[in-house]
Structure to design on (376 residues):
């Protein structure tokens, strides 16, 4: 008989082994128990002494699992319980019947979560379509190439795209290598230099009424970035006395040893994971301070995945470019090792009373949502 239940903390080894065997060998959750616990147990939106993972167990063996990452879903200032779905899998011999759906029912029906699946492939997209979920358009990606490293970037892209025309590569680099004009900032620091109350009132408090998505309140940001067990995230806060803006990113040294190019043994790459200005002047000061920091650190390229129409328009005005890949050419988005991956797709299933927001451009998602920004 199959039992559907939440995973206990004593079952971490068993769940990791199941992921290693049936999902992906040497997965990040298998390699790091601190990452596993941070994701599925220590989340401030999960008040439970079990992991936020449902299991299908038959005669002591795991036949299926569904991991979730709970979060507060903000809809124009109103808050609802929600979760991202990760590692949803039932072994082939147990796929008859409703085992997979029962794994979901623990969170959707028993715990009352709204559900979002972020980072889906064609196979899972067909499943969600059958379940009447709303698939969202692929997430736009902003790319900035440091003009100081234009030639090195051309070499790198030439080695990744052996059949691409050199003029096409040069044009791509030229389109994304923007010289920013730095401007003085009124007052800036890091996230820990402002009080939680200040951010929740004059930062997120102003943004939440016009956006949909994971609540970026101080509780969530502290856990997501500054308590992360592996990555070190950096932040810039601009406070003009009325509005507080925030930008969060991480640096990564990326090895190019697998590529026969002249880019050196490694290069500095940065990924913006949250850009939350409350005004155009906020945005200018945040990006100006950020680019200055990138120049100081010898960063060759920056990217930012973001699904929000207003933010995209704002950051485009500042000089970032929505990456429009001609004939399949794009800047690598996987870093260890360097490679090109597919666009990020997602699907949403909200209660009928909230279904009208599913296709809104007011959603604010970035690559840090769910578990998309984690070690490979």
């Amino acid at each position: 008989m199959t039992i559907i239940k939440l995973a206990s903390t004593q079952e971490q080894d068993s769940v990791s082994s199941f992921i290693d065997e049936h999902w992906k060998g040497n997965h990040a959750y298998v390699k790091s128990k601190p990452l596993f616990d941070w994701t599925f147990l220590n989340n401030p939106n999960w008040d439970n002494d079990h992991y936020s993972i449902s299991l299908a167990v038959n005669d002591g063996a795991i036949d299926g699992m569904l991991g979730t990452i709970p979060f507060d879903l903000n809809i124009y200032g109103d808050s609802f319980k929600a979760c991202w779905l990760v590692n949803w899998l039932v072994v082939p011999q147990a796929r008859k019947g409703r085992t997979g759906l029962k794994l979901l029912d623990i969170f959707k029906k028993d715990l009352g979560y709204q559900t979002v699946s972020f980072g889906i492939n064609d196979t899972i997209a067909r499943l969600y379509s059958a379940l009447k979920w709303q698939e969202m358009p692929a997430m736009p990606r902003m790319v900035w190439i440091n003009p100081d490293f234009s030639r090195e970037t051309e070499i790198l892209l030439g080695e990744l795209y052996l059949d691409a025309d050199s003029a096409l590569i040069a044009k791509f680099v030229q389109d994304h290598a923007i010289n920013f004009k730095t401007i003085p900032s009124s007052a800036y620091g890091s996230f820990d230099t402002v009080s939680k109350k200040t951010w929740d009132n004059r930062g997120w408090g102003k943004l939440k009424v016009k956006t949909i998505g994971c609540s970026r309140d101080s509780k969530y940001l502290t856990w997501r970035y500054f308590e992360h067990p592996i990555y070190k995230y950096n932040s810039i806060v601009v406070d003009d006395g009325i509005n507080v803006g925030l930008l969060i990113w991480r640096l990564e040294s990326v090895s190019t040893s697998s590529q026969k190019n002249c880019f050196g043994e490694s290069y500095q790459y940065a990924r913006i994971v949250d850009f939350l200005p409350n005004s155009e002047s906020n945005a200018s000061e945040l990006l100006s301070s950020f680019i200055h920091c990138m120049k100081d650190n010898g960063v060759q390229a920056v990217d930012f995945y973001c699904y929000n129409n207003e933010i995209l328009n704002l950051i485009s005005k500042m000089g970032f470019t929505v990456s429009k890949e001609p004939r399949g050419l794009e800047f690598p988005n996987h870093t260890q090792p360097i490679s090109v991956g597919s666009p990020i797709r997602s699907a949403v299933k909200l209660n009928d009373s909230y279904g009208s927001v599913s296709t809104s451009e007011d959603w604010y998602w970035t690559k840090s949502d769910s578990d998309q920004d984690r070690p490979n």
